[in-house]
Specification:
Blueprint lengths: L3 E5 L6 H11 L3 E3 L3 E2 L14 E2 L2 H9 L3 E7 L2 E6 H9 L3 E5 L2 H10 L4 E6 L3 H11 L6 H11 L8 E4 L3 H15 L3 H5 L2 H4 L3 H9 L8
Parallel strand pairs: 1-7, 1-8, 2-7, 3-4, 8-9
Antiparallel strand pairs: 3-6, 5-6
Bound molecules: adenosine-5'-diphosphate and guanosine-5'-monophosphate (5GP).
Length: 215
């Protein structure tokens, strides 16, 4: 079964940048394209960057249970389509959710086994610089900075915390978390037939006894 990785951070920290590079380096990992009612920014494509919806479409989606979670962020709805996550799970592909802090907590409630990772900016000054560098036309830097001050303390509720000082370093750490989580005992032992081709090791793992604990 594919697993869920939640990447969350205050807006402008670098989630999208880090996620984009990560996806080039890790196989069997798909970014879930989330839905939003905000207008596309120049260069953003429907179905690639977001699924762009009207408020009416989004509210119908909420009623019909289309979203695994949704939140109102800076005056717009954002939501994670349930179908993509379920399809990835069935296809044994891991899902990467790049979502805000509220969404991360909701997904953890529904899927407690999801792995949550909080990306921290190196400083508030640098966060502001990144927000300005990205050149939002539709956003208010001061509002996002005030929100960041409320979001940063949430890091202590996440499974992992990474400081995004340098993109390549943050990507390396994130990649390590994903690869290590794929080696967790239950995940390996539960798929032995697919992973291991040695009959003798297989039969020892399945039928043998641990000489220290089970003598
Ligand atoms: P988010 O998805 O968290 O809102 P973005 O990925 O859009 O943030 O990044 C915001 C801005 O910061 C972009 O201009 C991006 O190029 C820049 N950025 C991201 N990570 C770093 C970093 N480690 N060092 C310097 N600039 C960065
Ligand atoms: P932006 O408008 O800058 O693309 O995104 C604003 C914020 O909404 C970001 O923190 C982004 O990660 C978050 N976001 C994007 N998609 C979702 C989603 O499906 N659910 C939630 N809860 N937040 C999302």
């Amino acid at each position: 079964m594919g697993r869920l990785f939640i990447l969350s951070a205050p807006s402008g920290t670098g989630k999208s940048t880090v996620a984009g590079k990560l996806l080039q380096q890790v196989d069997s990992l798909r970014r879930v394209v989330t839905a939003t009612t905000r207008r596309p920014r120049p260069g953003e494509k429907d179905g690639v960057d977001y699924i762009f919806m009207t408020r009416e479409e989004f509210e119908r989606g909420i009623k019909e249970g289309f979203f695994l979670e949704y939140a109102e962020v800076y005056g717009n709805y954002y939501g994670t389509p349930r179908d993509q996550v379920e399809r990835n799970m069935k296809e044994n592909v891991d899902s990467l959710l790049v979502i805000d802090v509220q969404g991360a907590f909701r997904v953890k409630e529904v899927f407690p086994e999801a792995v949550s990772i909080f990306l921290l900016p190196p400083s508030l000054e640098e966060l502001k610089r990144r927000m300005i560098a990205r050149g939002y036309r539709d956003s208010n830097t001061e509002v996002r900075l005030e929100m960041a001050k409320k979001e940063i303390p949430c890091a202590r509720f996440f499974d992992y915390v990474i400081i995004n000082d340098f993109v390549d370093r943050a990507v390396e750490l994130l990649r390590s978390i994903i690869l290590a989580s794929r080696c967790e005992r239950e995940r390996v032992l539960g798929r032995l037939d697919a992973l291991l081709h040695s009959e003798d090791v297989l039969s020892l793992l399945k039928g043998g006894r641990c000489y220290v604990k089970e003598a």
